[in-house]
Write a structure and sequence with these properties.
Layout lengths: L5 H7 L1 E4 L3 E4 L9 H8 L3 E6 L1 H14 L13 E5 L4 E7 L5 H11 L8 E5 L2 H6 L4 H21 L4 E5 L18 H14 L12 E3 L1 H9 L11 H20 L15 H30 L19 H27 L5 E4 L4 H16 L2 E3 L8 H21 L5 H29 L4 H21 L9 H17 L6 H6 L2 H21 L2 H8 L4 H5 L6 H9 L3 H17 L14 H23 L4 H24 L2 H5 E3 H8 L1 H11 L1 E2 L4 E4 L5 H30 L4 H29 L1
Parallel strand pairs: 3-5, 3-6, 6-7, 7-8
Antiparallel strand pairs: 1-2, 4-5, 9-13, 10-11, 12-13
Helix pairs in contact: 2-9, 3-9, 4-6, 6-7, 8-9, 10-11, 11-28, 12-13, 13-14, 13-26, 13-27, 14-16, 14-22, 14-24, 15-16, 15-28, 23-24, 27-28
Length: 756
């Protein structure tokens, strides 16, 4: 941690990712759209003052406001620009030399009668070198002139944002004969003079002229693509303009993926209360631990001198051990949440933008798949989608999704479409798993529901509090939670039909089919009735859970994207369990699922279907159109994979313990990645070790996986305490939880009111 202002890094350092993507040192740059630029600069007056290079920057800057602007007008004269819709004025003032004329112009803004510009961008030197043929006298005069201008700029910096643009290097071989005297050696001398003189009288003051030196680094990489060796190519000056926009607008617009120049957000009331709670938990655990240690020392086994018998140590009461376990869990959780906060809310660790390349995605994929094969073991049972197999499935899918996120592969449509199938497969397992449980066990009790809801939502609720994020932000957990409740409601409402009842009368199977048809009808209706869907989830307090940015559109989009796959999972479970019950499939060790002929035909169809879907997904040209088809066709590849994985007896009898281990903590991995592996709420990458990308990924991944594993254990421990089997105790806990969420809603409303 080097400390300092990220604005300084943005203005002075960075590197290229690929050919065109600029990565500032330690922070993330937001790509501003026209509407965002207008909202930021509304009622603002910006002035660019200098030579032809500043004029280039001026045009790139105003194109961020209005892309239709053409580079017309007098090249050696002033150029005005105005956007009346947002009351934005941007002027270019032609002052190619740092001289008395430029000084007079700047001085006029320091006088009370003239309105000061909100942003001033100035810079010049190459004309002085050219006109005076690179003489030393010209450099001396430049130093004198900039010395006279510096106090004026420093005075303006108290009320305006003032930037001095250092001179970019030139490509000397490409310069025309009339510009041959402009050498990089001369440019460096002029830049050195400007840096030394500017802010010399206000070094300890917060109001300083900001030196825009990053343009030099960009030019060093791209000046050889220049048309004349002097002026930057368009892509480079566009990057400079975007940097300028980030420097000024990030603190106003606060974009999630623009961490440069953003101050640390203040702690909310709920965050402060959470901090107090975790602190008290740590203190409480330490006190109980000390008491237990003292008691242990006092009651330590020793020989009684009179009787010669060994004394037994006192046994601690179960209540104390439960309390200790509770405080111990919250103590660990508090330390972990501190790490979360430091990684993604405090400006402590660096963040960088993602940059996709095929190698950054496919090489790690191949590596983990090969690694997974090395950890092949025999399964305990050989049923279709047995526990080890589903854990393995979740594990490798989660690892692929993690690589997809950190590599920024969402920009590559074929990969995006295949990842959509993996997310759908998770939901398919939700439908399959919960339907199978309720159908076989017939357990519709409150304890089961509370256990599932607690395990799904505990971490997300804690993160909503600590990271100050809405519940819908972690979209996958609301998705599986709502689908679990839909599955429960479908099977629990009268008549409750389970396998035991259906075995007595085959007509009950038609009852289940009827329930599934009703569910499909409801899904179909809601998917094509956005208004009805939004009305349901816009009621308070549901709206507090499912709103994002003031509406539930994002929730509707996420739900609609995989709307049929949970139903497909339930239907598959129903058909599979019926076939299993009537002994129409063979699940013995090493046996094919069906007869050899049927197995071979189904296997062939599955492989063809799997490859056909992949070819279709890889040929996608339009994300919107492909997303429309995805809910209906994703099940094809999912079913094809299940059959390929389960029809051959040997394949069904083995699993990868490596993938299964990750599968057991897949939910925690999916949620934790938001803040301690990725950064800026998944928009960027967390940088713990700058300058060493591979080593950084190794270290951050190790910590990330350990934290996810620890949180999984904490959740399991707390689930046993918070959700007891005894109904009367459970009812009391539910009342406490209801009180907790009521308080949370109250504090949230207070926060919203104070923000507005």
């Amino acid at each position: 941690f080097k400390g300092g202002d990220t604005c300084e890094y943005l203005l002075s350092s960075g590197r290229f990712l690929g050919e065109k993507v600029w990565q500032p040192h330690s922070c993330m740059m937001h790509k501003y759209k026209n509407s965002e630029a207008k909202n930021c600069l509304i009622d603002k007056h910006i002035v660019f003052i200098g030579d032809s290079r500043i004029r280039q920057l001026f045009y790139s800057f105003i194109k961020l406001i209005n892309p239709q602007v053409k580079e017309e007008g007098n090249k050696h004269g002033n150029i005005p620009f105005e956007d009346k819709s947002a009351s934005i004025k941007v002027d270019f003032l032609w002052y190619p030399e740092v001289n008395g004329s430029m000084r007079q112009c700047i001085k006029s803004w320091t006088e009370g009668s003239v309105a000061k510009p909100h942003i001033i961008v100035a810079g010049a030197a190459t004309w002085s070198i050219k006109i005076h043929n690179g003489s030393n006298e010209a450099l001396t005069q430049y130093k004198i002139n900039i010395t006279s201008i510096a106090p004026l700029l420093e005075k303006l910096a108290k009320s305006s944002d003032v930037y001095w643009v250092l001179q970019d290097p030139v490509c000397e071989d490409m310069l025309s004969e009339s510009r041959k005297m402009i050498t990089n050696e001369k440019i460096d001398a002029y830049n050195e003079a400007a840096v030394r003189i500017l802010n010399s009288s206000s070094r300890n003051s917060k109001a300083k002229v900001k030196v825009f030196s990053v343009s030099k680094l960009i030019a060093q990489e791209t000046i050889m693509k220049s048309a004349d060796g002097l002026h930057l190519p368009e892509s480079s000056r566009d990057t400079n303009a975007m940097i300028l926009m980030n420097v000024y607008c990030n603190k106003i617009m606060k974009p999630i993926d623009g961490s440069c120049c953003q101050p640390q957000p203040p702690l909310t009331l709920i965050q402060k209360l959470a901090f107090c709670f975790f602190t008290l938990s740590v203190i409480g655990y330490l006190i109980i631990n000390l008491i237990h240690r003292n008691n242990f020392r006092k009651n330590k086994s020793c020989t009684d001198l009179e009787s010669g018998e060994e004394k037994k140590p006192a046994i601690s009461s179960p209540n104390v051990s439960t309390l200790e376990m509770l405080l111990h869990s919250f103590c660990k959780l508090g330390l972990i949440m501190t790490y979360f906060y430091l990684c993604d809310r405090a400006n402590l660790f660096m963040k960088e933008n993602k940059f996709y390349t095929h190698s950054s995605f496919f090489i790690p994929i191949v590596y983990i798949l090969v690694l997974g094969v090395f950890y092949t073991e025999n399964t305990k049972e050989t049923k279709v989608l047995n526990r080890e197999q589903t854990d393995e499935w979740k594990g490798w899918m989660q690892l692929v999704i993690l690589i997809y996120h950190i590599s920024g592969a969402s920009t590559f449509l074929p990969v995006y479409m295949h990842i959509r199938v993996l997310v759908a497969a998770y939901l398919f397992q939700t439908g399959y798993g919960h339907f199978s449980y309720f159908w076989l066990k017939g357990d519709f009790g409150v304890y089961r529901v509370c256990q599932v809801l607690f395990r799904l939502n505990f971490l997300v609720v804690v993160l909503c509090i600590v990271m100050d994020r809405p519940y819908q932000f972690y979209y996958f957990v609301p998705l599986v939670t709502v689908w679990f409740m839909i599955i429960y409601a479908t099977l629990a409402i009268w008549p409750q039909i389970v396998q035991k009842k259906a075995n007595g009368n085959c007509l009950w199977h038609f009852g289940v089919v009827l329930k599934l048809i009703c569910l499909l009808t409801c899904i179909y209706f809601l998917s094509y009735s956005q208004g009805a869907f939004e009305k349901i989830f816009s009621f308070w307090p549901l709206s507090k859970c499912f709103e994002l940015n003031g509406n539930v559109y994002e929730w509707w989009f996420r739900w609609k994207l995989d709307r049929y796959v949970v139903f497909h999972g339930m239907l598959f479970a129903f058909i599979y369990l019926a076939l299993q019950k009537h002994q129409m499939i063979s699940e013995g060790k090493g046996d094919p699922l069906f007869s050899n002929r049927v197995s071979n035909v189904l296997l062939f169809i599955s492989i063809v279907s799997f490859l056909t879907y992949s070819i279709w997904a890889s040929s996608c040209k339009n994300k919107t159109e492909c997303n429309e088809l995805h809910p209906s066709v994703s099940v094809v590849q999912i079913l094809a994979f299940i059959l390929i994985r389960n029809i051959p007896g040997y394949v069904r009898s083995v699993y990868s313990s490596f993938f299964a281990w990750f599968g057991k903590i897949s939910l925690e991995l999916f949620i934790c990645q938001y803040h301690i592996w990725l950064a800026a709420d998944t928009k960027g990458i967390l940088v713990l070790i700058p300058g060493y990308p591979m080593f950084n990924v190794l270290v951050s991944t190790f910590i990330f996986v350990c934290v996810a594993h620890e949180i999984s254990q904490i959740t399991n421990d707390l689930a046993q305490i918070v959700v007891p089997k005894d109904n009367s105790t459970l009812l009391k806990r539910l009342l406490c939880i209801a009180g907790f969420f009521s308080g949370l809603l109250l504090f949230s409303a207070m926060q919203d009111q104070s923000r507005h």
